[in-house]
Amino acid sequence: MKISEIMTDMDYGPAPEAQDIVQDWLGRHEAGFGHFIDGTFTGAGETFAVTNPATGGEIARVTQGTTADVDAAVAAARKAQPKWAGLQGHQRARHLYALARHVQQHARFLAVLESLDNGKPIRESRDADIPLVARHFYHHAGWAELVAEEFPDRQPWGVCGQIIPWNFPLLMLAWKVAPALAAGNTVVLKPAEYTPLTALAFAEIAAECGLPAGVLNIVTGDGATGAAIAGHDGVDKLAFTGSTEVGKILRRQTAGSGKGLTLELGGKSPFIVFEDADLDAAVEGVVDAIWFNQGQVCCAGSRVLVAEAIEARFTERLKARMARLTVGNPLDKNTDIGAIVHPVQRDRIAELVAQGRAEGAEIHQGAAPEGCFYPPTIITNAQPASVLSTEEIFGPVVTITPFRTPDDAVALANNTRYGLAASIWSEGITQALDIARQVKAGVIWVNGTNLFDAAAGFGGYRESGYGREGGREGMAAYMRSPARTGQETDLPALDPVPGGPTGAALDRTAKLFIGGKQARPDSGYVYQVNGAKGPIGLAALGSRKDIRNAVEAAAKASGWANTTGHQRAQILYYLGENLSARAEEFTARLTASGTKEKTARAEVEAAIARCFRYAAWADKFDGAVHNTVSGHVTLAMHEPLGVMGVVAPTEAPLAGLLSLMLPALAMGNRVVAVPSQTHPLSATDLYQVIETSDIPAGVVNIVTGPRDELARVLAQHDGVDALWYVGSARKQVEADSAGNLKQVWTEADGARDWAGSEGQSRDFLARATQVKNIWVPYGA
Ligand code: NDP
């Protein structure tokens, strides 16, 4: 062949990576792998086959973890934890640093093993996965060093259960193990059944570099093994990455257990291309967004939304680019797209595409060899309701949908139950950042995609889960505030008193406060409120319908999220001033409820002080600029959660309610509050104070009535984004929250002194916000 022909063709010969070191290692474990528990490998038990997806051949056998195995691993982790947490941060840092160094030393081995086990191209495991694994251990060696200084009020959870998926096996291990160990926790981790090998290799590396026995335990197995870890009483915190369906199961399973829970779940991330985008860069962006790792990426840009004016041009260029992708042997250094992890997954992709075709979508595909491969695929003409537009396909399949205006783009982008990531392509910084603010996602890349770094938090909004991995937020998730205990006794049932045919009782009764107006309860019933010496009034008996109305009113008041911190501060100061003007009245109300006068006075003073405190914070709870490795300004913005349910403590009815409502409001959330069931009247007295304080209608809504019944309605409501609950029905409330995976914070009644210093902290603000990480190129 002539050189000129080669230059025209640009065809490559095969360039396979050698796999002998991995074959030697696998040969040494031919008898099958056991688990890694308490610093050593157990003998192999009942094993299952691990296959190479590119060939279908068996490469190893690993043990199916039983509940006894999980018990042993948790016991080892428990035993090792106090000593590990008791090491100086510097000593833990040296262990993490050693892990990073050893990962680097074994980088080629780990990359080849990952590609053999998972099917991903060696170029990706070598240049993306493994370097990021090392980066995570280095970064978190730094956190181990600094943790005592940077998080002085927090402590490690104890034993962390970690369940990871198959798409980035070693990287997901690193994302979970590094922060857990840095914070002083010990770990029991289950890798995915399809891809357990790099976790086992990592366990060997950990032993080789002297990580103390029991600090890291790996138990292999399937979903049942994962469920045994999640349900184990000895596990204090659970971290999961995987499907939204399993995430919901785990939310229900851990409800009421007091376990910490972070969930990194699915996505259907938009990739938005504006008319002024650099089209070639955006086309290359799509290659990284959906064809990286065969599209088996939770934050894959699987929905391209493109400005109508450039749709045809963009689609043609993307098709031309797709035609040049090489699909095949993962170990070949020229391969762009490797094997799908398992035939089950390949068939699932094929089924979804067939379903989309039947719904009228047009399918454009590249070529792929026989076997467990799927061709790169572009879909046009998929309707917004098509399965291809809504379901997480987890394959190399992207839809292209045109939009007319930026508002259309935002509406389409947010038309999903997920909220993991988004890419925005525009040469106009104003436009890009304006859209970044409006898209509901935990990670936004401007003129880029699939950028990850240990210094930046990663995680989702909505049904993409909660909690962040990486950065300061990720470290915070592996530590807890000191545990609090309180009373777990249920409140007595309420006796409904009819409002009467004329509604006479209702006219004398404090009503509900919904959408800025006082409203009669839908039930028409009231209930008697007792003070120390007998009945002191009547309160409206709120029900499901009233909560729904309140949520609707709160949803309409979305403008509150866009007010500036300064504006919110002014309003909260005004609230404090108006409350202060009526301090005597509130003191009298609390005294009538049975509170001693001195205590009542102090509670009212505390409530006023809270207004000032959170007004102060409203424009000061800043985000951060993360120091990521690439040339980006990575902005960690604190955003409100949306509509929050707040179910207040029984005691300290005024200060307790305001201690929860005010941080939520200061951060831009709207609130539907259920005040103390026993002492609701100081909350109903607040209506007039709220009305005179310029709080826009719908921003605060108050529904009195049966606490737990109303709390469960809030927990089940898909229009509620987060719920704070103080009471005894924590288990039910947490389980009910699984429907839309709202963030829930529950505590027992009496677990803190709400009128005292425990009733306020920065932690309340952190809980009232979610972090959006926006990557903006800065010399990239
Ligand atoms: P799963 O959510 O089922 O698996 C993730 C992990 O959870 C695996 O280790 C799995 O075990 C384990 N697991 C499964 N069931 C339970 C359970 N009841 N309790 C505790 N742990 C459990 O994802 P799949 O692998 O089945 O993939 C299905 C779909 O999920 C994909 O097509 C994709 O759409 C999505 N997915 C999303 C990921 C993400 O990063 N967001 C990652 C992976 C999948 P094992 O696999 O060993 O049986």
UniProtKB/TrEMBL annotation:
Annotated active site: 264
The UniProt record lists the keyword Oxidoreductase: yes
One Gene Ontology molecular-function label: oxidoreductase activity, acting on the aldehyde or oxo group of donors, NAD or NADP as acceptor
Coiled-coil blocks: none
Gene3D superfamilies according to UniProt: Aldehyde Dehydrogenase, Chain A, domain 1, Aldehyde Dehydrogenase, Chain A, domain 2
Family: Belongs to the aldehyde dehydrogenase family.
Protein's name according to its UniProt entry: Aldehyde dehydrogenase family protein
Species this chain originates from: Palleronia caenipelagi
